[in-house]
Amino acid sequence: METPPSGPTASQPTAQTTDGDHGWFETNGELTGGFCLTWIAGTAPGQVMQKLGGRRLGTTGWGPDWASFSGRRRGEAVMAVAAMSGWSLVVEDNGILGLRDDLLERLSTRTTVVSHYRNVEQDSRFALVKNGDIQVAFDPYDPGDRTGSHPDMLLAAMRAAGFATDGQGSDDADATELAFALTERLTRVPMTTALLHAATYIVTAVYDADTAAWEQENPDPGLQPAG
User: Fold this and answer.
1) How far apart (Å, rounded) are the C-alpha atoms in residues 106 and 132?
2) Looking at residue 168, what is its pLDDT?
3) Scanning 26, 69, 156, 160, which has its CA 20 to 30 A from the CA of 217?
4) In angstroms, what CA-CA distances link 181 with 103, 143, 200?
């Protein structure tokens, strides 16, 4: 049975955090090579795997080597899913979820999803999705350019987190930290290294056509065939 969804609305109060609380991102260095963090409200990790059509590879603690976890097949992306307070968190090394609207919409059925993606070249995307509807999406480096069915829905929370929403871009040094602060305001879960390190993760393999296409051009003989 689905856990009743929870999540932020425009009128709900949020945690009072700003980018200054998230300087650990640059000093820690564990995520600077690229990441995608996707939060799903009121949904257990097993339900998240089911929605994604994922295959369980095992359970582990925090680590940067999930993509090389034993059992991955050709064409599969690897995600690590952990239970958080009122949410599930999907962690990816670089990742695909934040750029796949079809998967975000599927995950958000009857609930709320908050996703934050950034790659090593600082291509970035933040999205709030509710019940299959992408309500707000923007690049944290360019927060004035927002899309979605309700592009201004998060203006107050964005400003409180430290974003300039009047067309002025964010500094390279703080755009990611500002997005962490906004995530924390929406989920009310602290975005800290202690939180990430303490969680237990279900490592999950999810078929992805883009991954399959890349691996067809760059074959890895060590991977098992798909199917």
Assistant:
1) 6
2) 61
3) 69
4) 24, 14, 23
Whole-Å CA distances, 121 to 43, 70, 117, 126, 214? 32, 28, 12, 16, 19
**Residue 77 CB: number of other CB atoms within 10 A?**
25
CA–CA separation, 72 vs 207, rounded Å? 10
- Exposure string (b/e) for 145-176, b if CB count within 10 Å is 16 or more? ebebeeeebbeebbebbbbebeeeebeeebbb
pLDDT 10s digits, 71-110: 888 888 899 999 999 999 999 988 889 999 999 999 999 9
The owner of tokens 């932020």 is: 8
**14/159 Cα distance (integer angstroms):** 12
pLDDT band with cut points at 50, 70 and 90 for residue 121: confident
Q: Which residues of 5-31 are buried (b: 16+ CB within 10 A; e: fewer)?
A: bebbeeeeebbebbbebbebbeeeeeb
CA–CA separation, 165 vs 158, rounded Å? 7
Least confident of 4-13, 49-58, 206-215: 4-13
Task: Note the pTM of the prediction, 2 decimals.
Answer: 0.86
Helix (H) or strand (E) holding 45: helix 45-52
E strand residue ranges, 24-75: 34-41, 55-60
